[in-house]
Amino acid sequence: MSALCEATGADVSEVAFAIGMDSRIGPKFLNSSVGFGGSCFQKDILNLVYICECNGLPEVANYWKQVIKINDYQKRRFLNRVISFMFNTVSGKKIAILGFAFKKDTSDTRESASIYLCQGLLKERAKLSIYDPRVTEDQIINDIAANKLDWDQPAQPVLLEPVSPTGLKEVNVTWDAYEATKGAHAVCILTEWDEFKELDYKRIYDGMQKPAFMFDGRNMIDAAKLREIGFIVYSIGKPLDPWICDMPAIA
């Protein structure tokens, strides 16, 4: 839905509000984001796919498999937005990652969208500076270095190419958001930690390379205020800046 909103100039938050007014649905869990994570949701869906296939229901299995596919599409779409907005290359550019856990108030990183984003940026030869208030440096490095399974295979999942040891040398983990963003070309907000709402974004902007890009994967911040500061802003599912609205959702 966020992709459709960006293509039409709609606001995904307004769509979510309208849908949430239906009492049969409710407003919870309708916020758009860079993609869901956690150990349970994907595992439970894949278990459902397996049960359907074992019981001779391939059409039902394929229906539920699309949930995983569209979530992977959302993560891939966000990554390509970052690359295309930054003039089609992030090679040698420092990108600050704010948030690595799959959701706020936890150190759990299992299936976090941040892992995919970091791996993708490193393969494009970006330099990463990562800050998360709960996740340890060892956990972040191990997650980025780990192989990922590709579930979109007809027979059985296969391992995707891992990040090289050389790529991991371009990862710096900090314990301060301002330190992570210092000298960065772009900032990606990937976890909805409350403290990110209270950051001094004028201070962050002043310490960044120009043009300074802000990619909000959780719709946490006021895009209009950031644009007044000077940021080029991408908020997922929100109307795009006029000069970038014609860029493709998938590069």
Strands, count: 8
Instruction: Profile the largest sheet.
Output: 6 strands, parallel
Question: In one word, what is the shape?
Answer: globular
The helix count comes to: 10
N-to-C SSE string, H for helix and E for strand: HHHHEHEHEEHEHEHEHE
Q: Could you list the spans in which at least 5 consecutive residues all have pLDDT below 50?
A: 151-159
Radius of gyration over C-alpha positions, nearest whole angstrom? 18 Å
Give the % helix.
25-40%
- The quaternary state of the protein chains shown equals single chain
How are strands sequenced across the largest beta sheet?
Answer: 5-2-1-6-7-8
**End-to-end span in angstroms?**
18 Å
Strand content: 5-15%
Topology, please?
Layout: H1 2-8, H2 12-20, H3 41-54, H4 58-85, E1 94-98, H5 113-123, E2 127-131, H6 137-145, E3 149-150, E4 158-159, H7 165-168, E5 171-174, H8 177-181, E6 186-189, H9 201-206, E7 213-216, H10 223-229, E8 232-235
Parallel strand pairs: 1-2, 1-6, 2-5, 6-7, 7-8
Antiparallel strand pairs: 3-4
Helix pairs in contact: 3-4, 4-5, 5-6
